[in-house]
Amino acid sequence: LRPLLILDTSTSPPTRIPPNAPYKFKNKHFEGDLCLLFKTQDNFISEIFEGKARMFEFQFQGQFLQTPQNPLYLSVHFQNPPQIGMLMRTVVGAGLNWVRKVNKGFYYTLGAK
Fold it and tell me: What's the first-to-final CA gap in the chain, in angstroms?
């Protein structure tokens, strides 16, 4: 595993977000907690990853400070996305298509081929 640095760029100067620990954040629209969980050799949250191939999990919880007047978007972008094979891409695509059917307005992309 390589060292990971995650920054909250909404603060000045940017604030380091610690992995595997809650991080409180607030802006003019939203207030809440974020927890970026990563699988490590000495992981104290092993029950989340035990028996799973997953390497990370993002958890967030909070509240809007005002009722949103427009659509909301959640985006995750990887500078170096994981390479997945054709079979796994098909399985992931099928799962995301199902999510799109039950959640109108859901959009996803697995990136360029």
Answer: 26
User: How far apart are alpha carbons 107 and 100 in whole angstroms?
Assistant: 7
Q: Which two tokens stand for residue 96?
A: 């995301």
Q: Give the CA dihedral 96, 48, 76, 64, nearest 10 degrees.
A: 100
pTM over 0.70: no
pLDDT tens sequence across 62-83: 999 999 888 887 777 777 777 8
Q: 56-94 burial, b if ≥16 CB within 10 A, otherwise e?
A: eeeeeeeeeeeeeeeeeeeeeeeeeeeeeeeeeeeeeee
